[in-house]
Amino acid sequence: MGKDVEVGGHDYGAKDYEDPPPAAFIDAEELTKWSFYRAIIAEFIATLLFLYITVLTVIGYKSQTDPAHSSDQCGGVGILGIAWAFGGMIFVLVYCTAGISGGHINPAVTFGLFLARKVTLPRAVMYIVAQCLGAICGCGLVKAFQKTYYNTYGGGANELADGYSKGTGLGAEIIGTFVLVYTVFSATDPKRNARDSHVPVLAPLPIGFAVFMVHLATIPITGTGINPARSFGAAVMYGKDKAWDDQWIFWVGPMIGAAIAAFYHQYVLRAAAVKALGSFRSNATSSRSPLAYVTSYLVFPSTMATPSEIDAEVAPSPAERDADFITSEESKFNRLESATSTPSKRQ
Fold first, then answer.
1. What are the protein's UniProt keywords (predicted)?
2. How many Å apart are CA 143 and CA 308, to the nearest integer?
3. Distance CA 124, CA 101 (A)
4. Same structural domain, 251 and 328
5. Domain enclosing residue 307, as ranges
6. Is 180 found in the same domain as 68?
7. N or C: which end of the chain has fewer CB within 10 A?
8. Residue 228 and residue 97 share a domain
9. Rounded CA gap, 293 and 277, in Å?
10. pLDDT in tens, 94-135
11. Is residue 6 in a domain?
């Protein structure tokens, strides 16, 4: 909720933040701007660097703990080190690209933001293409530099671990991606940014930490996808049947998780339609049906007003509030005057 603003001795509920306008479904004008293509390049390079560093870390860990080369099973960085590599790179790359492309570096994040009307369809499609190409190139560099190790130690490809069903793997990907995308929405919420000026600067930190925590939990199950581009690029360069047989898990799971996170944040936590219902209850003069308004907002969100427009349309103006206050005070005064002027029964 916005902070309360006191004007003339009265408390008025006022928003201390402003929601950005929803992105158009298709914006032909952005295709003519250099900033659009610069953002695509940034997503490509960021995903390339992400896969290059993280896949090298995975391969290095497996080679260091290979009994054929070393008897020290604790010589590698371990799962903790791998998780730090993924989370740390996301933190660094989101920080570097947030002001250029938004720092998605993940088709699931892009898909979730598209569902929340934060990006247009052309931008979402081009981001996903750039991310997948960047992932392929990043894994390609690793394979070019360390081909023997790459083929021997799995190329960093995501595969369902032995002993786990496909349903378990799918569930792990859904929940893991939900945690990530939910964190993205929360860290970039304009309401939070308005209250704490340091939040935009620190936003990459919780996002990277979310990636770190999810990797700790799901590396033993699926190797942790939560990023379809990461799984796709590694599978393309590795080329083994097992990686391709399980590939659908690393697309379907993250997309479902991203969709759930987008719905949860936009329609449950922000709950614009529910706020509108409460505003209708406090404004008895409104002619619109609250139930009809809420239903139309949930069923046709793309055609409805933004939360800021809802507040502007539903909430009474300051003049109307002053008039209501004056009327209320006059009514109280009249009742008090009537009570004091009426003789008591004892007299």
1. Membrane, Transmembrane, Transmembrane helix, Transport
2. 50
3. 11
4. no
5. 273-339
6. yes
7. C
8. yes
9. 8
10. 999 999 999 999 999 999 999 999 999 999 999 999 999 999
11. no
Is position 14 within any domain? no
Q: SS3 for 255-280, per residue?
A: HHHHHHHHHHHHHHHCCHHHHHHHHH
Q: Are 258 and 285 contained in the same domain?
A: no
Q: Do strands 10-13 and 4-7 pair parallel, antiparallel, or not at all (unpaired)?
A: antiparallel
Task: Give the Å distances, CA to CA, from 222 to 36, 112, 134, 249, 327.
Answer: 34, 22, 22, 9, 66
pTM over the 0.90 mark: no
The H or E element that residue 54 is part of is helix 34-64
Residue 330 half-sphere exposure toward CB, CA atoms < 13 A: 6
In total, how many domains does the chain have?
2
- The three-point CA angle 233-237-238 to 5° equals 110
Residue pair 265/113 in contact (Cβ under 8 Å)? The answer is: no
- Cα separation of 36 and 30, whole Å? 6
**Over the stretch 270-279, which tens digit does the pLDDT of each residue have?**
765 455 445 5
Q: Is 110 a member of any domain?
A: yes
- Write the CATH number for 225: 1.20.1080.10
